[in-house]
Automatic annotation (TrEMBL):
InterPro entries: ACMSD (IPR032465), Amidohydro-rel (IPR006680), Metal_Hydrolase (IPR032466). SUPFAM superfamilies: Metallo-dependent hydrolases. Residues 3-249 form the Amidohydrolase-related domain. Keywords: Hydrolase, Lyase. It comes from the Bacteria. Pfam families: Amidohydro_2 (PF04909). The keyword Cell membrane does not apply. This is Amidohydrolase family protein. Gene3D superfamilies: Metal-dependent hydrolases (3.20.20.140). It comes from Metabacillus litoralis. The lineage of its organism: Bacteria, Bacillati, Bacillota, Bacilli, Bacillales.
């Protein structure tokens, strides 16, 4: 079985459900963890990273993901919440009732600190709900790898997934956290081959999770990196399905 643990789906010409489902059939992906896309136009991602552009639509379209999950049993949704909202706890509770299975945050879209009140409330609730807490990090003091690790240490009952293996080509802080913390995991999308290989060697296959970052990257290309790793079949199975299945209890 192959599960893509991180794909952005949106009602757009470049990232909609139908396009992704065609790729699932083509590549042989069995299930997917979907999060709302199109808060940023990924076709001009560098503009956002460098600050030359601001998010086009920072309101996450959770309804699009909810509909996709209701209509397709092989799609599992993570709700995206803006931590600046005053009702974050109510939003997460509602998401749980709607069938979402985890939380997705976007510091590039919503520009927050991992030490903010909204974030700590969400991190605590994720532990109560058994929701994985997924986010990428940015080159910012408040939303850095170090700050995210501090959050993971503060809430050991919550499972934290750092997107794209952390920040930059080879984030050693994220790697060390995955090695030392039971509740800290590395998601592979857009990560480079050598760093993924070294991460499996140093922290074990149980801490690495395959994701594609669709539509910015092609699921087949991201999956090929995992297939080319010099690891055992059992380790590969952990990465492409076993670990995320265990976290989501699917």
């Amino acid at each position: 079985m192959i599960i893509d643990a991180h794909a952005h789906l949106s009602n757009t010409e470049y990232g909609n459900i139908e396009l992704y489902q065609n790729l699932m059939s083509e590549i042989g992906i069995d299930q997917v963890v979907a999060v709302p896309g199109a808060m940023l136009d990924v076709r001009k991602m560098t503009e956002y990273i460098t600050g030359r552009a601001k998010p086009d639509n920072p309101v996450p379209d959770n309804q699009y993901i909810e509909k996709a999950c209701n209509e397709n049993k092989n799609i599992h949704g993570f709700i995206c919440i803006n931590p600046h909202d005053k009702d974050v706890e109510q939003q997460l509770e509602k998401g749980k009732k709607q069938g979402f299975k985890g939380l997705k945050l976007s510091p590039l879209s919503h520009q927050f600190s991992f030490s903010s009140k909204g974030i700590t409330s969400l991190a605590s609730l994720c532990g109560d709900y058994d929701f994985p807490f997924y986010t990428h990090v940015v080159y910012s003091p408040g939303a850095s790898t170090a700050k995210f690790i501090q959050l993971a240490k503060k809430f050991p009952k919550t499972k934290f997934i750092i997107g794209h293996m952390g920040f930059g080509p080879a984030d050693q802080e994220a790697l060390e956290a995955a090695k030392s913390l039971d509740n800290f995991f590395l998601e592979t999308s857009t990560g480079n081959f050598l760093h993924i290989q070294e991460s499996v060697k140093k922290v074990g296959s149980s801490k690495v999770i395959f994701g594609s970052e669709y539509p910015l990257s092609h699921p087949g290309i991201e999956l090929e990196k995992i297939m080319k790793l010099n690891i055992t079949d059992r380790e590969r199975e952990d990465i492409v399905s076993g670990n995320i299945k265990q976290l989501l209890k699917i």
